[in-house]
Amino acid sequence: MERTQTEFAFELRCCRWAERVWPPAESGSGDRVIVARQLGTKRRRWDTIVLECDPEALRERAKFGRERLDSDLLHIVRNAPTAWTYYRDCLPEPGYPWRYVREAIHRAADRGILETRKSGNRIQIRRKWPYPDWLNRIVAIENKPDLDASAARALGSQLEYDVAVSLADAVWVATRATGDSVEPALFEDLPIEAGILTLEPETLAAEVAWYPRTLAVDEPGTRILERPDGDERDRSAARFEYVDPEAKAETRLAIAERAYERGWRSFIETMRPDCRHFELRARDGDQLEPYCGANERCQTAAACSSRCADFEPEPPGWRTRGWPIEGGPGKRCRQLLEDRRRRRRPGR
């Protein structure tokens, strides 16, 4: 059980379970699944995100490369015409200076996802491929292995925010299975729209304790800005604002693009694989988890940093082995996780 004591380790196991068996039902949806971690907006970040994708459209998305398309690039590739056209005549008004659009056009051309030419002093563009509608659903999962009353209170307000905004199609809470006839999570004060999943992290056996409701992603959402503090003398009203469906659709696609690029195995990007104590240990045959030899446990990104008292750089002999093609063990760890991340995406 030591390997799953932390929420981080439980989160990795939840991601692995979702990648293997999603959706949590007897029959699958036929969608291709991409799983990512720690993504969202500046106001809300989710532990785990599951993208349900159209398989054929996802293969078309692969033509645009493994890197994400940011909002500027999406503005161009989604509106680029099939015939050569002056870019100001075919692209919608961006809402910001056109010079930034020109910069994005050059970036798109450098990545090989847009054709450009000059006619006099005018830049003309033509699309190479239509940008596909590859995203079907976004499912957000909050991981709380030990969902006690205090954790449920903190999580409850976050889930209420998710339900009100309806940015994801469904929200779940994943918690550790207790084996009780009725899981304790069902007694906690959580929104009824949120699903509850009980997961045994060692065996990856999961059961649905409560199915979520499908949220209205195509309708205006409500973003809660401020709540009363709950004191009996506090008579103030909550402050909120509406979020129009078009803005939600743009945000959903931006999140999906980031998830497409990162995946859930990107945890090594916030750790120190160049430390001599850093290891990747196999689990279930093919899942690789970070392990610290100095602390003898699965490391978290917060603990594995340059401020760690046990940090020791790789010896020069390790770092130069196979240099510059293979590098030391730290570089090899990065390559292993990147290779496994690519397996879940077409066009590698």
Folded structure, characterized:
The chain is α+β, with helices and mostly antiparallel strands and 348 residues long. It folds into three domains: 2-56 and 136-263, no CATH class; 79-127; 267-342, no CATH class. Helix content is 28%, strand content 24%. The protein contains nine helices and 14 strands. The protein has helices at residues 7-21, 55-61, 71-77, 87-90, 98-110, 149-165, 245-262, 316-319, 329-342; strands spanning 32-40, 45-53, 85-86, 114-119, 122-127, 135-143, 170-176, 195-200, 205-210, 221-226, 239-243, 278-283, 287-292, 297-298. The strands form four sheets. Strands 1-2-6-7-8-9 form a six-stranded mixed sheet, with helices on both faces. A three-stranded antiparallel sheet has the order 3-5-4. A three-stranded antiparallel sheet has the order 12-13-14. Helix 3 packs across helix 5. The two termini are 36 Å apart. The mean pLDDT is 87.
Which structural class should the secondary elements be placed in?
A: alpha+beta
The gyration radius over C-alpha positions equals 23 Å
Helix fraction? 25-40%
Question: Per DSSP, what share of the residues sits in E-state strands of 2 or more residues?
Answer: 15-25%
Tell me how many strands there are. 14
Total domains, how many? 3
Helical stretch tally: 9
Kindly report the spatial arrangement of strands forming the biggest sheet. 1-2-6-7-8-9
Distance between the termini: 36 Å
Order of helices and strands: HEEHHEHHEEEHEEEEEHEEEHH
